Amino acid sequence: MSTSPRLIPDADPDDHLSLPGWLYHDAEFYEAEVARFLRAAPQVVCHINELARPGEWRTLEYLGESVVVVRGDEGEVRAFANVCRHRGSRLVDGEGGCAKKLICPYHAWTYELDGRLSGVPMKAQYPGLDTSAHGLFPVALEIWRGFVFVTLEPGAPSVAEMMAPYEHEIAPYRFEELQPIGRVTLRPRALNWKTIADNYSDGLHIPVGHPGLTRLFGRSYAIEANDHCDRMTGLLADRPSANPSERAYQHFLPRVDHLPEAQQKLWLYYKLWPNVAFDIYPDQIDFMQFLPIGPATTVIREISYALPDDRREMRAARYLNWRINRQVNAEDTELISRVQAGMGSPSYVAGPLGTSEVCLRSFARKLRRLIPEARLPRPPAPGWTRRPAMQAID
């Protein structure tokens, strides 16, 4: 199966090698990832249309932090740490809701929707308390084409910068008008986040591990790596699939008038470095995140969106899309669980990467640049994250 790769030129002497196995389960390496780039990585929380009214809020749990995104009374959307400034209690629970004010369930400290501290019970017990200095801690926020992203600390490019090479391709999908067609799904997995991220951008496993996608795409599946984003595509074949769900999807998928002809039957995937992905279909748009919980635990967070369309054919296509991708997810879980197990074996050393494996090369190159110890075949002596880092190879 042709992958039509585009390789980013680089002088990395290890460019032909995958990452060593210890990176996929070592606790210190995970700590280094969190400190050096994961906290700065933009994370999608929700779509702006899920915050339609003042007081509507959504949350994200990421790297031990809880972030709440809320629309203010004047319409502004802001992000805050979901932490009361009094004793550190979580302010809100769950994925989302609506409130006129954010009131701490512990001692009832009260915050306005713009984060200001406006109510302190028994305030006289806090002489000299400056309420203006005790508002909610703000978190950096970016709205890209209707999707709300937050970052815990600076250091990464904006989502707009990451996606700039593909704006022309994304524009026709009218992301800004999307509405949710489901709820956020959380799928815990006993996997390192990189095992999932690698697989998402791996083109060579499609004909081996996904017979359904192979029936749908034929030999059209293609991948490419850009500076901050991988792009994968599959064009639906004209020949009807032998599988009933796939054949029905091919049959029912209606024309989408706002899409160019070349994208009427295109399945399009983007993975933003390091752990956020968009699955873009003619019938719906999904986002997926690989949220690290520890060195060998990850939560896959996802939800589907679509433009309003009550056509019977479109409703059928969306249901069949879900059936097809439920099977793809099951196949991927089995495949990457095998990889995770193998990465824990001392017998595994960094394997070779083929010339077409451009996304894996790009991913490994970024990681080695950010954490030069990733070049080592075995983990350094304990405590290496507290010693001066190896010199990076540009």
Structure description:
With 394 residues, the chain is an alpha+beta fold. It has 9 helices and 18 strands. Strand 17 and strand 18 form a beta hairpin.
Provide a compact summary of the structure.
The chain is built from nine helices and 18 strands. It is an alpha+beta fold and 394 residues long.
Helical content, roughly? Answer: 10-25%
Judged by helices, strands and strand pairing, the structural class is: alpha+beta
Low-confidence stretches: 1-9
Arithmetic mean of pLDDT: 95
Radius of gyration equals: 23 Å
Order of helices and strands: HEEEEEEEEEEHHEEHHHEEHEEEEHH
Number of helices: 9
* Main beta sheet strand tally, sense and closure: 8 strands, antiparallel
Through-space gap between termini: 33 Å
DSSP, total strands: 18
Q: How large is the share of residues in beta strands?
A: 15-25%
Dominant shape = globular
Chart the SSEs and their pairings.
Blueprint: H1 27-38, E1 43-47, E2 56-62, E3 65-71, E4 77-81, E5 96-98, E6 102-103, E7 110-111, E8 117-119, E9 140-144, E10 147-151, H2 159-163, H3 167-170, E11 179-180, E12 185-189, H4 193-200, H5 206-209, H6 211-217, E13 222-225, E14 229-235, H7 244-252, E15 266-272, E16 276-280, E17 285-294, E18 297-306, H8 312-343, H9 358-370
Antiparallel strand pairs: 1-10, 2-3, 2-5, 3-4, 6-7, 7-8, 9-10, 11-18, 12-18, 13-14, 14-15, 15-16, 16-17, 17-18
Helix pairs in contact: 7-8
Question: Could you list some keywords that capture this structure?
Answer:
394 residues, alpha+beta, eight-stranded antiparallel sheet, four-stranded antiparallel sheet, 9 helices, 24% helix, 24% strand, disordered N terminus
